[in-house]
Specification:
Number of strands: 26
Structural class: alpha+beta
Number of helices: 22
Helix content: 25-40%
Largest sheet: 6 strands, antiparallel
Strand content: 15-25%
Oligomer: single chain
Distance between the termini: 77 Å
Radius of gyration: 34 Å
Amino acid sequence: MVGVSDGPGPTQPWAVDSTQVGRPLLSIALASMVEDVHAHSGAVYLLRPDEPVLEMAVMAGMPRAFAAPWERVGLSAPIPVADAVRDRRLVWVGGEEQMARCYPRISVVLPYPFALAALPVATAGTVYGAVFVTWPGVHPPELSDRERDILTAACERLALRLERAAVENRPVGPEVDLLATPLSGVSDTLGSVEAARMVSRLPYGLMSLDLHGRIVFVNAAAADLLGRPAGELLGILPWVSVPWLNDPMYEDRYRAALISQQVTSFVALRPPGEWLSFRMYPSTTGLSVRISRARAVAEMAREAPRTGPGPSRLVTITQVLSLAAALTEAVGVQDVVQLVWDEVVPSVGCQALVILASQAGRLHVLGHRGYADPYVVERFDGLPLSERTPGTQALNSGVPAFFDSREQMARLYPNRPPDGFGSWAYLPLIASGRPVGTCVLAYTDPHVFPADERAVLTSLGGLIAQALERAQLYDAKHRLAQGLQESLLPHTLAVLPGIEAAARYLPATQGMEIGGDFYDLVPARPLAAAVIGDVQGHNVTAAALMGQIRTGVRAYTTVGQAPQDVMSSTNRLLIDLGADLFASCLYLRLDPAQGQAVMARAGHPPPLLRRPDGQVRVLDLAGGPLLGIDASATYPTTEVSLAPGSVLALYTDGLVESPDVDIEDSLVDLGALLSEVGDQPLEDLADELVRHSAAARERVDDVAVLLLRAGEVR
């Protein structure tokens, strides 16, 4: 470790040994930051050199268990420290309302009043990690300039020290967490003896908890109320040492008091029928708890906690809440696999993960993590479900299987190839009353699975199953939408004499990612045609109607109808179909030999024409109403000069309409871009127009673009 000169003074409560030669760089920097801004907890994360992950290196002021879901944070995670690193900025969350709005996953796990600041630890050229610090809920909703300046300067100094350590090849890694040290040197004094006697004489119970929640002092009245000798309570968590306190709600109150630094309380039922009141007074060194008898209230009986065995300590309520919140954000199957790896695996202590499912009577590997050789897992892909393996057995039966050692696995499944691990848990993933897959957790060493751990793992399998079922439905819907869209749009554009063409289609990101935007080139004789249009809606109905309109336009063009007649016929077709949907359309009859195009428009955005000299203008075309409104509507045509080298840009409104931008401004920007880069190859130009469109980036609506460049006709 690297020695520094600005460590905490003797009045600071952090357990840092300033006499050691190699002083802990991260711990001292963090302690100084927390002290200088009067925060009550914080942590330093280091960025891994081999993957985009932040790992907690040291925490101060709070037990690390409070931050267990965020020990390892991916840079893409919706977490303040990840945002701070990605954006190279200070992230401020002023209270629980802002936390719920901006970081709902954290708010679900820690629904308490506290403020948080996260900052990157970075030099101009390198990111080393991040820091967060928290304040009690009484902190003002805004970060003061003084606090901002202190934290920013401290992170900059820490980054320089990490840079120097890297140059000098002195590794900096995890350090011992900083918790407030207990008072020492007073236990022999007369004052402390008299204080202990006074506390022992009080008619109500008093006990003291350290930051980890362990009982470090209990008076006789408290021991009597809890029903345990004082010697059996000291050094143990109350919800572990007292069976009827083993309920997540009571542990939650302890966490709430420490994080918010506000007085909290709860009422618990001591069997068979005595109600006790617990009032907790927090500080940065722990909690003082007053215990007294509470009045029996009828409403309390309906809320009495269970008196049976409490939940397993394998996975805390914090981690379960975090997992549940995270899995609600999973969209596709691969999201579920990654979230289980990020959230479950660190909690249960396994080293590898496989998610299996069945399809057409065969086993399929949906995803895996932690295996050095992917073939070890992928050889099971496609295995018939009739094969006797632990994966197929758990999936077929819906019964979990636990294997404590290689010997046990080999005894039951002698033909199973080794995978390098020493114990396994096979969890059936059951959703809607049926198995949807199997989650395999592999441990490097032999591992005994006691009954309570098996119960917890099986329950976690239920959460994973629900997320997997949703993800599979989403993926199936997405594949269906993509397949339908691809079948209705042209796979390739027809080759037209004297015309070069390029097209792009992007579905809306809302709804089913399928819509009614379409384009086509029709190589009819004697003159070819081009069309672009937009049926309202982003669903299967819109896509199906789009296919019918496109087919109709091709048919009317092929039989030789004039542009205005093609539009009129398509309008009547849409009305006859009775779909109650409207469509915009722009139709062009192309004559490159004569250097012209004849256009008819039905409520569609006007095209842009770039002349060979780079000048761009919006074509003010005559037109009629949207298709599908008036069966007697007419669609006048406009003739446009199309010299060799000219580019026509046809598009749907998804390219230019954005909630925050005026459409006239969007057209001006599109025209300026087309003028500037219009000489590029047409495929590159299509990419450029889509890439620079703010509306296309947001994708509230479908986007279709059809570019036509006139050339010489030979």
